[in-house]
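User: Predict the structure for this protein chain, please.
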Amino acid sequence: MDHSGHGMTTDLPPFTLGRGLEFSPDLFFLIGCLTALGLYGWGVARLRRRGDAWPVSRTVFFTVGVLTIALVMCTKLNDYGMVMFSVHMVQHMVISMLSPILLLLGAPITLALRALPVAGRGSTGPRELLLKLLHSRYMKVITHPGFTIPMFIASLYALYFTPLFDFLMGSKPGHIGMMVHFLMVGVVFFWPIMGVDPGPHRPGYVMRMLELFAGMPFHAFFGIALMMASEPMVQTYANPPASLGIDALTDQNAAGGIAWAFSEIPSVLVLIALVYQWYHSEQRQAVRMDRAADRDGDKELEAYNAYLASLRTGSR
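Assistant: Here is the predicted structure, written as structure tokens:
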């Protein structure tokens, strides 16, 4: 028996974590994950051959980020996510809020700019195209909080509370497109906030924190709305297969609890990263000021002392 129109059988046994983690690859995401790891590895290897350093921590972050995508899209979590709202919500939260943060901490754009060769004079290569994209008006728009925050919110309310979700779940391309959308929305939302890679929108640390906390409460409200609902709100999950042995409303309440609880996790991760970056930025600034003082004999301090002396002289 078929479910949702693209080859998902409805005779899945009751969900357990062991069954959910069994290997069941989605070819699109499997190829995408392997390609991402291969390109990142090529970039790191190219830098190493050149004698340049690349932090191991960034490689670890990026690799774990790709593996989190594979975890929810290339296992039976993806199969169960077609018929269980709670499992789908785990997929959504991971791929839109955890994977993007880990990928961005890996600084893939910085790596690409350092690893890609510079094209010859008068020609355009991949590195030049990437720079052109980074400085384009399009990129300025999609990384601006006036776009990223509403899009982040709309990915919840406009998708799940309208017939759009059921339509996308009705075909394999629609489902893949929706999951890619979740990933990309997470990337453009967290990119300017994380501030690891270069980008057109680079606010200060306080503004980044405000942007972060502007979006997170809506995830909590969305989860509470699902938990308080007295009837199934998404048609796709209104009649789960009997083999699962679950109640649609109970499963929906669990999905709401997952969405509500998960909203706190990225906030903490990003906040830790921001505080760490802020601290090191202040440290670098202090080192630069010390070096400048050593070079010029601390002329700035001498000028300030001269200014104070002139004030004292003028007051006599």
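The CA atoms of residues 257 and 269 lie 20 Å apart.
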